């Protein structure tokens, strides 16, 4: 029996990695540009635009204040629209991504706002376009802090993915509930939690290492 | 090369700059000096339009910057290098990559960078990161970066204010060198007269957003017109007494006090044995409290502060003698004889 459990555990681990990885990637692709926009549309920003800034702020604040478990259920119609179903591992990626986007946007905004205005002035004095200042100056300079934020988000996503799993998404959370909780298999529960701990450790370690690699201060 | 025509800059309620007019000729080094809050920083940012003037025109290299579109302004800025007090280097990039940045932004090849690093004396640091460099080295990287696009003009925003005296000297020497070797026109702002004295051809004195005095360094040093200019000149010539002595000086004569004179020497007079003459021919015993001599461009300037120990009736003859020699004298106070 333990062989069966083990292979299921491997599948569940893979499902969690898959959910966290894909939703993490998607939220970065959308969240980082949003964060840049959030920063640059600020007052005295590079692309100062108070109406865009206000709208973004409101949307992001709403996104951040909705509890994940509510979001999971509330956006079922959107999930269905995007992936055709609201059940399964792939479907879980939609709410996970939606919950991570505002987080990443704020993290990016914070990371970039730490950069001295002098660097932007230096860029302007070289004749750089706003896009060049963002891509060649702000993002490279803010990279270590953005990586730290992404690490934090991935770890949060591991926890969220467990919740998503419980309502039909598969993954380690689902696995732990089905065997560890419902069938009282304490061993299975302990092993599953150990895998989760390991996963979090790996993400934190990798994130720290990567951030330090890019941090030349 | 640079021309400001009636440039004013107004923030919400304050005038940062009022009706600024000046010209910087090709190959000149011009220093703008002023106390903090005088508007220097706004002025230099108007020269590449990092700050947009509220009114007036700015010309650089015969181009009216104030009339350009955003994209034409970006192109114009490529020919105007700028360095900053805080260096503003990218911490995430090596020295080489920092200098390469303007070239990359302009889609140019980066093969001239080693030459630039050699010019600023940092060839061996090309793979280091700014955090590994000293302040003086960081400013050299910033200078190399500012020169990467072969600018016609270099703007220096308090470029030496964050540096110690040795590095300040070295950076000013480097600026002078690139001015001569590359024929670069330099506009710099500073709050320190010794920076101006060291490197500039002309100086503009800015006070409360207005130009109050302007001229060749030697002329301004020799005969400052405004009080604020005198203040800067005195600070550069160390014309003030050290604190301990200053406390002992009274504004009016009293029993057993002797006068303290500040004598300004200029040109030939600085080389004449005036003190000896005062002592021998006028019987004035001069107690030298402070003295300094400076060479500015081709002018020798000196300041000497002396306590005059002699009978009161002999003082006037000495003052007359100095006046006849065309030396400016100020009586800065009186000091008790026994304290010296």
Explain this structure.
By secondary structure, chain A is mainly alpha-helical. Chain A has 9 helices and no strands. The termini of chain A are far apart. With about 350 residues, chain B is α/β, with parallel strands linked by helices. Chain B has 12 helices and 15 strands. In chain B, strands 6-7-8-3-9-10 form a 6-stranded mixed sheet, with helices on both faces. Chain B starts with a strand and ends with a strand. The model of chain B has no long low-confidence stretch (mean pLDDT about 90). At the A-B interface, helix 6 and helix 7 of A face helix 2, strand 6 and helix 3 of B.
Task: Give me the secondary-structure topology.
The complex is a heterodimer of chains A (217) and B (340).
Chain A lengths: L1 H39 L9 H16 L2 H7 L1 H8 L5 H25 L3 H9 L4 H40 L1 H12 L3 H29 L3
Chain B lengths: L1 E9 L4 E10 L4 E5 L6 H7 L8 E6 L2 E2 L5 H8 L2 E4 L11 H11 L7 H7 L15 H13 L5 E5 L7 H18 L2 E6 L2 H7 L2 E6 L2 E7 H6 L4 H11 L5 H4 L2 E2 L6 E10 L7 H9 L2 E12 L2 E11 L2 H13 L3 E9 L4
Parallel strand pairs in B: 3-8, 3-9, 6-7, 7-8
Antiparallel strand pairs in B: 1-2, 1-4, 4-5, 9-10, 11-15, 12-14, 12-15, 13-14
């Amino acid at each position: 029996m333990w062989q069966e459990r083990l292979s299921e555990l491997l599948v569940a681990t893979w499902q969690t990695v898959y959910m966290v990885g894909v939703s993490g990637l998607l939220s970065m692709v959308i969240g980082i540009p949003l964060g840049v926009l959030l920063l640059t549309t600020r007052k005295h920003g590079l692309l100062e635009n108070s109406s865009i800034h206000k709208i973004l702020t409101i949307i992001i604040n709403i996104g951040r204040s909705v509890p994940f478990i509510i979001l999971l259920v509330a956006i079922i119609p959107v999930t269905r629209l995007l992936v055709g179903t609201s059940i399964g591992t792939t479907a879980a990626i939609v709410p996970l991504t939606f919950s991570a986007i505002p987080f990443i946007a704020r993290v990016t905004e914070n990371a970039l706002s730490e950069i001295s205005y002098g660097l932007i002035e230096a860029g302007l004095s070289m004749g750089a376009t706003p896009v060049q200042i963002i891509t060649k100056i702000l993002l490279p300079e803010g990279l270590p802090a953005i990586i730290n934020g992404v690490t934090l988000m991935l770890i949060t996503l591991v926890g969220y993915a467990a919740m998503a799993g419980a309502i039909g998404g598969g993954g380690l959370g689902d696995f732990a509930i089905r065997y560890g909780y419902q069938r009282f298999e304490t061993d299975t529960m302990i092993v599953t939690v150990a895998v989760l701990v390991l996963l979090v450790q790996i993400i934190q370690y990798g994130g720290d290492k990567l951030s330090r690699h890019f941090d030349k201060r | 090369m640079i021309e400001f025509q009636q440039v004013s800059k107004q923030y919400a309620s304050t005038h940062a700059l009022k009706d600024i007019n000046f010209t910087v000729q090709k190959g000149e080094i011009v220093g703008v000096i002023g106390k903090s809050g005088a508007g220097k920083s706004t002025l230099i940012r108007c020269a590449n339009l990092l700050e947009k003037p509220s009114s007036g025109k700015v010309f650089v290299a015969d181009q009216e910057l104030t009339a350009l579109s955003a994209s034409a302004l970006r192109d114009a800025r490529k020919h105007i290098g700028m360095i900053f007090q805080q260096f503003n280097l990218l911490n995430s990039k090596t020295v080489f990559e920092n200098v390469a940045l303007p070239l990359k932004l302009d889609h140019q090849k980066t093969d001239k960078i080693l030459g630039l690093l050699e010019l600023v004396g940092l060839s061996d640091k090309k793979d280091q990161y700014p955090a590994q460099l000293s302040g003086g080295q960081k400013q050299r990287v910033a200078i190399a970066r500012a020169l990467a696009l072969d600018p016609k003009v270099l703007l220096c925003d308090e470029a030496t204010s964050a540096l110690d005296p040795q590095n300040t000297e070295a950076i000013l020497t480097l600026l002078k060198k690139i001015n001569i070797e590359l024929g670069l026109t330099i506009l710099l702002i500073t709050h320190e007269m010794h920076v101006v004295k060291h490197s500039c051809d002309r100086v503009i004195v800015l006070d409360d957003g207005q130009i109050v005095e302007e001229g060749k360094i030697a002329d301004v040093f020799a005969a400052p017109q405004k009080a604020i200019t005198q203040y800067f000149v005195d600070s550069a010539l160390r014309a003030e007494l050290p604190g301990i002595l200053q406390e002992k000086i009274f504004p009016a004569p009293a029993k057993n006090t002797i006068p303290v004179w500040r004598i300004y020497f200029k040109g030939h007079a600085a080389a004449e044995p005036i003190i000896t003459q005062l002592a021998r021919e006028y019987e004035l015993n001069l107690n030298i409290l402070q003295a300094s001599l400076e060479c500015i461009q081709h002018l020798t300037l000196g300041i000497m502060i002396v306590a005059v120990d002699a009978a009161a009736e002999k003082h006037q003859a000495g003052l007359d003698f100095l006046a006849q020699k065309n030396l400016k004298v100020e009586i800065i106070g009186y000091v008790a004889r026994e304290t010296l």
